[in-house]
Amino acid sequence: MTLLTYQVFKTVAEQGSFRKAADILGLTPSAISHAVSAMEGELGFTVLNRSKNGVTLTNYGEHLLPYVNAVLNSDESLQQAISEFNGLKRGKVKLGCFSSVCTNWLPDIMRSFQKKYPDIEIEVFQGTYDDVTYWLKNGVVDLGFLSTSSAKDIPIEPLWRDPLLCIVPKGMKKEKDTDYMDIGEIRNHQFVTQRESTDADIQNFLKENSINIQSNYHVVDDLSTVAMVANGFGICLMPQMVMRDIPYEVDCYPVQPYAERVIGLATLHPEFLAPAVRSMYNHILENYKEDF
After folding, report:
1. What is the pLDDT of residue 195?
2. Within 10 A of 259 (CB to CB), how many other CB atoms are there?
3. Domain architecture of the chain: domains with CATH
4. CA–CA–CA angle 110, 112, 116 (5° rounding)
5. Measured between alpha carbons, how far is 94 from 171 in angstroms, rounded to an integer?
6. pTM score above 0.85
7. Cα separation of 287 and 284, whole Å?
8. Phi and psi (nearest 5°) for 46?
9. pLDDT tens-digit readout, 220-261
10. What is the pLDDT of residue 214?
11. What is the rounded distance in angstroms from the CA atom of residue 44 to the CA atom of residue 229?
């Protein structure tokens, strides 16, 4: 099988459509279909389910995709190394990140990096902690921002300490005359919560302090969570970085005992990075790493 075959398979899997894959790759839908059929004939099993609603991966296809990504990433690394030998800084870097890093750090990272390396392309994937972990393990992204607690077995370089805050409706009368919210007071409030894949560090804080929260509100994104709080439906816990982007009027208090998430830069094989990826990795560490 050729690299083009692998690229066709990857693109069809991502787009869920032969026609969309054809548009992206500059081929005809029939050429895409032929390439996939030839691939399946050579493999001896089907990798895609075809239906009127689109195209999905078979079980075999799902297991094969990470290996295809690895082959394509290896070819990209080879092309980057050749460019580097020729004195050129070219290639592509694929970054995975969660929302607060995407809004607070990424614009500056991209501008400063592209100023230094104008011929290196940057591709960004935004999602939850679980999404970024999946993308790293399956070769979809080269580098990913995660909290150190969510990285698990993926190597991660700590960058930034991000304190957790308790967010309450604007002007809410506190039980205690303090400039923080302690565990006892937090326990007495209705909560607006997010999925665990979105706020793993907050869930850890609640578990460590034996807080069994009561909530009728289970939302996904940071903005929706704070909007619910601003309108009096409960309180929530948020990392400090998140609150830089929030337009709603709320009050923010440090939590007691102190808690934080540590944001880090993760990659599966930090010792074997393609030249362009290595340049981005070093650029981020040089500009965003705190002293630990």
Report:
1. 65
2. 19
3. 1-63 (1.10.10.10), 160-260 (3.40.190.290)
4. 110
5. 43
6. no
7. 5
8. -85, 145
9. 788 889 999 999 999 999 999 999 878 899 999 999 999 999
10. 67
11. 55
- Judged against a pLDDT cut of 70, whether residue 79 lies above it is answered with yes
> For 43-56, how does the pLDDT look when each residue is reduced to its tens digit (9 = 90+)?
888 888 888 888 89
CA of residue 68 relative to chain centroid, distance: 21
What type of residue is 281?
A: Y
Looking at residue 39, its amino acid is: M
For tokens 């995975």, the residue is 96
Eight-class DSSP state of 221: S
Q: How many Å apart are CA 160 and CA 260, to the nearest integer?
A: 10
Cα gap 198→82, rounded to integer Å:
39
Report the alpha-carbon distance of residue 36 to residue 141 in Å, rounded. Answer: 24
156-169 and 236-239 beta bridge pairing = antiparallel
How confident is the model over 110-124, as pLDDT tens digits? 999 999 999 899 999
Could you tell me where the beta strands, DSSP code E, fall in 134-282? 143-147, 156-169, 181-182, 192-194, 217-219, 236-239, 250-256, 260-266
Segment 241-244 long-range contacts (CB within 8 Å, at least 24 positions apart): 241/100, 241/101, 241/104, 241/160, 241/162, 242/99, 242/100, 243/165, 243/167, 244/100, 244/103, 244/104
Position 13: which residue type?
A
The runs of H, that is alpha helices, within 142-245 are 148-151, 183-187, 200-208, 222-230
Q: CA 189, CA 42: separation in Å to the nearest integer?
A: 61
Cα–Cα distance for residue pair 218/135, rounded to 1 Å: 25
Tell me, what amino acid is at 236? Answer: C
